[in-house]
Amino acid sequence: MKLLLSLCCCIGILLSGCDDAYYNDGGLLDNQIGVYEGTTMSYLESQPALFDTLTTLIKLNNMEEEVNRKGSTFFAPQNYSIYNYLLLKYPDPENRPKTLEAIPAGDMAEMAEYISDYIIPNEQIVRSDLSTVYSYSTTLSDKKARFNLVREDYLGNINMGAAYMIYSVNINPPATPEFYSPAKVVVTDVATTTGTVHVLISDTHIFGFN
């Protein structure tokens, strides 16, 4: 049983540890080869400080097969993004589920749909194939997704500094004007035995593109 409140203990670790592990331009440190000898799911499980809440939700929704679908891409939201979603979903602490397993069935189904938003089935999206021009695909949840590179320095100056990858999903219903909610990618191109993983930023992205 994973207490939702235990996520609070992870926040400090996440915020203090990420800068030491990864560049913020979407690249890997020199001593990280970007290859993991295991499935996408096992890669996520190997980094519990970042993904143990995510992997629990995947298992509770029986979505391991979808995450591990051969030749697919998974844009992995971190624990902190899910924590912030839960705070928005259940603002009253008295009514907030005490464990992930206690989340009501209807809300859990919604979270399963959100997990599908992060899966690009049967297509491996890699940073080297992207440019500042949008590339498009479709998520497992049948939503339009797009990818591009943005160049911006630490002062926010556009077209300066390092280029980083953006993953965006159209969150508007069909037959309405498209609106893409973006998330910055902080780690790109982790190759697993079943596909490709990109890790999304945790402090500005809320699970489900909320």
UniProtKB/TrEMBL annotation:
The FAS1 domain extends over 51-200
PROSITE patterns, sorted? PROKAR_LIPOPROTEIN (PS51257)
Query: Which InterPro entries did the record assign?
Result: FAS1_dom_sf, FAS1_domain
Q: Which domain of life is it from?
A: Bacteria
- Name-wise, this protein is FAS1 domain-containing protein
